[in-house]
Amino acid sequence: IIPLLLEEPSVTKPIMADPDIDFASGDAGASLTYPMQCSALRKNGHVVLKGRPCKIVEMSTSKTGKHGHAKVHLVGIDIFTGKKNEDICPSTHNMDVPNIKRLDYQLVGVCDGYLSLMKDNGDVREDLRLPEGDLGKEIESKFEAGEEMLASFLLLLYHKHLAISVLSAMGEECAVAIKAMTSK
Amino acid sequence: MFEATQNVMLKPTESWRQALLDHRVMDLFFTEADCAEEAQPIALKEVDCAEEAQPIALKEADCAEEVTSASCQDIWLTDRQHEVTARPGEHGGGGGGEPESARPEWRLRPDHTLSSSSSSSPPRCRGHRLRTVHRKIREDSDMAQDSLQCLAQLASMHGPVFPDESAQVSYLAHLLEGLLNMINGIEIEDSEAVGIATLISNLIATFPRSVLTALPTELFSSFINCLTLLTCSFGRSAALEEVVSMACLQPRLPRRGTHPKTPCGDGSLSRVSLSTQLDKDDMVYMEAYDKLLESWLKLAQEDEHFPRGCFVEPAVQVFNSYIQCHLAAPEGTRNLTANGMASHEEEEISELQEDDRELFSDQLASVGMLGRIAAEHCIPLLTGLLEDRVTRLHGQLQRHQQHLMASTDPDSVDRKVLDDLYEDIHWLILVSGYLLADDLQGETPLIPSEVMQFSVKHSGEVDINTTLQILGSPGERATSIPGCNRTDSVIRLLSAVLRASEVESRATRASLTELLSPQMGKDIVWFLRRWARTYLLVDEKLYETISIPLSTAFGADTEGSQWIVGYLLEKVINNLSVWSSEPELANDTVELLVTLVEKRERANIVVQCENWWNLAKRFATRSPPLHLLSSPIQRTLMKALVLGGFAHMDSDTKQQYWAEVLHPLQQRFLNLINQENFAQICQEEAVKQEIVATLEALCGIAEATQIDNVASLFSFLMDFLSSCIGLMEVYQNSPETVNLIIEVFVEVAHKQICYLGETKSMRLYEVCLTLLQVYSKNNQGRKRQDVAAEEDQYQDLLLIMELLTNLLSKEFIDFSDTDEVFRGQEQSTSAARTVSAADVVLFGVNIVLPLMSQDLLKFPSLCNQYYKLITFICEIFPEKIPQLPEELFKSLMFSLELGMTSYPWMSSEVSQLCLEALSPLAEQCAKTQEKDTPLFIATRHFLKLVFDMLVLQKHNTQRTVAAGEALYTLVCLHQAEYSDLVESLLSSQRDAVIYQRLADAFSTLTANSTPPAMDRKQKNAFLRSLEEFMANVGGLLCVK
User: Fold this and answer.
1) Of B63, B350, B390, B501, which residue is 20 to 30 A from B797 by alpha carbon distance?
2) Helix, strand or coil for residue B555?
3) Are B923 and B1015 in contact (CB under 8 A)?
4) Which residue ranges form the domains of chain A, and what is each CATH number?
5) Using one digit for the tens of pLDDT, what is the confidence trace for B124-142?
6) Are strands B106-107 and B157-158 parallel, antiparallel or unpaired?
7) Which part of the chain is the Translation initiation factor 5A C-terminal domain (chain A) (predicted)?
């Protein structure tokens, strides 16, 4: 199978200089987080709550007394664990916003609780755990079904493959979704 | 009792019967009868007390049924609150039980038994009797409410029941005498407040000014006196109530439970939702106060009909008491409990709670109006109080500053004194704002004539230079300027607010922002905006007389106006950097900026300020601190900057301006999306933010569209739109970005399509069509989360429907003829035109319809937008409906049926919209003359639906008009079926009387339009007959 660019068909070349880029520490030079005034955050954006990168699902303001200053009440869902975190802080405060990357890989194998993922340049990494819970099961079963398809050459015929979306933020990485892709 | 007389007319509603059988009603009736005997000598000619009591309310258990039915039916016709009319039992509570609704109309027809018996003797004595009753029963709060309800009904008596005006005058005189007697010497109970207030507001709303002025002078003035006293007293009690109810929010304090249920007896009949009722329980005086203030507004607005100056003294009193209740001790009584204890509770206030200026807008409008009437007193009063508070605030802040410098602990500051000052200033600014200016939508607000006259009257004694000096030196204490008592009071009041603003700005510069009140900041910019719209660059042509001080200070081409524009601009810029963390304050601030530039004359001065250019440059480069503003604020800021760009500048300057404002936006955007690695970096937070900021800015640019700038803005935006479609692909996993992209299209269509000529609209249609195609492709197979999901999950759907509706609106509102000079040229292109509005919209409907489901219609916003859209389509492209694919056609028809029949599950506008969609569909069928098409069959089905709706269901005037029109076209189309429907309805009637009435009614209904034909004249004749028909037999068959 020819390695294919999964994310955006129109892009010609990946521009990763270093194929062995260290994912654990994020991109070289890019900081893990950057500050932002609380009032400038927006719903559906991201923020660090209780040390965890979260997607903001609720954001409201209130004040104590009519002449008080605004406070922002944030509810976020941990992008990796799905756990809910809350925080309330003065709207003048700076909050950390995580630098989040989402990359799609082609799934080439599931083995001993680890995923084999192929980058668009053909490199394979095997350091990412199969997620727990329903998603993990779904990945496994889809992959097995895909294997059968492969056996019948259907996969080749239809150019189908499975893509795994991997989210990375604050030095943490996790597979968050699986989808079937038709490659050209 | 009613079972015995068994009047068919009373069948319609159970609550009606319940109300009649209510024991309290009976009690009152008997009490009243006793009383009537006592009062025999007064009740001279009255035929029958029970009959007389008829219109009062529903006390008449066994009276002549015809009267009951007639009057009750009449209410059905006249009252616009249809829910109420359907339940006459509730109607008794109309005055008090429906505090928000229009006052019930007691318009009786001359041919009724009642009026024929009373026309010889106008209904004069009943009121007296009831009031006597009231004295006797007022200890029982429930009964007191009932009797006050009756009185309130009596107070709204009007119509042909009065043979002439003098009868009305003597009736009113009698009513007022009784009222004054009743009130004098008693202490009003909590339970009576709303009842009495309703009585007064009903009579002021009902009786014409001429009747009020024809009253004996003494009576009128004691009434006004009494009204003044009551208003002030209710105002004070309302303030006490507020303190108590605020205390109730604190769980540790016992909740006050002594209040009776909502007064004026809407008790069990109340339709008020539980939560509001609970609120009202605690706030009876507030409600009563609201009503009385509203009555004052009505009187004050027509004060030219009354003896000159007769309201000045009352206005002073009411105004004073309002101010007093809103100021802190010692001058005021704010937050003082009944025993004089100060209470100071800090409650958590959520963003959802309305600002006082909206929450109390009615009160403030009345008080502002009274302030104008007594301008001589009120304007200087406000000025003095405000100047004093601002000076004190200044001093207090200075003390705090010294304190802070001495100690490092910021928490050591006691905010109590500051908060009291802020609250005082808050109310003083609100009242000043309402007094000095109106807030009109879409009109040029004028300086209120009372204010103008006041300024004109004193302009002789005013030293203009000192006035300007006071205006131009907001940093100094007004009283420290020599000759400060010879200034124009109106300008002085503005400069008092400017002084507050200056203290605020200086405190921010001294890093005391923490100590300031964002609420006060909001009030200041709110006031300045309201003021600027009315007074800044005052146009002398709009006024008969103009005050010299005002025109000297704020007229066009004056130094004063230039100075103040500069000052306001500086204020805006300062606020945007200091208050970026306070969304509401920042929003009020950018709105002030929009006000400054939305009028060309003001914008011309604004763009001469260097500050303006700095602001524009900083925003364009996203430099701090503007990038901290939340996105809606940035959007409005962009709007203001674009509006300012159309001010008068020489062409070089203009070019330079655009190069600094719009081009950086475009450049940055293009640089970003054309980057080779855009696909990789596009999901990065920083990139996304840049994209989102650009999209927000585009919305802001679209919002700035005006007729004279649409040409340039349209081409600028069009360049972006196709790139935006590309972004739809890139960000298909990020719904909020997708929504924002669609929103750009929605805004462009909303603001611009009405001005676009044919070629340009075509370009817009094309790009919208592409957008829809991409959207539909991306949505294929997309699984949305469960139905319990929140409404904002469907934001994209809502936006798509909005977009389609906006595109359709071109068919209704089109200003484009003027700018398309070469229509001949257009013709040739239109022959080859590729996309029409119909194509786009129908394509869109193909996307939207399958995504809509009955569950989604439970969201009101989606539901309303959806029905608005499909009704538009039926009205504009009825010929396209039969061409729809079968499934779509079916779901469209089903949607219509659902919308029509789901009231009150959906709003009544929805059912009205659906009914409006029927006529064009039926006309379409008639045009094609084809029978047995799906549409033809569907319309036949609709005929039955509409027929049943009119004849068998609860009556609703607005809906009846829409239903009537639909029915007529449907009847034209399906005459035979209509006859069948009538036949089968008649044959199901066993009661001969009803049968006859119905049969007669149906034949009269169509008498004027036989054979039915689709022309306007006949249709109107039918609609008129329908009105009669509904009056006659409407509700007869209505089964609950």
Assistant:
1) B350
2) strand
3) no
4) 33-98 (2.30.30.30), 100-183 (2.40.50.140)
5) 444 455 555 666 666 677 7
6) parallel
7) 99-179
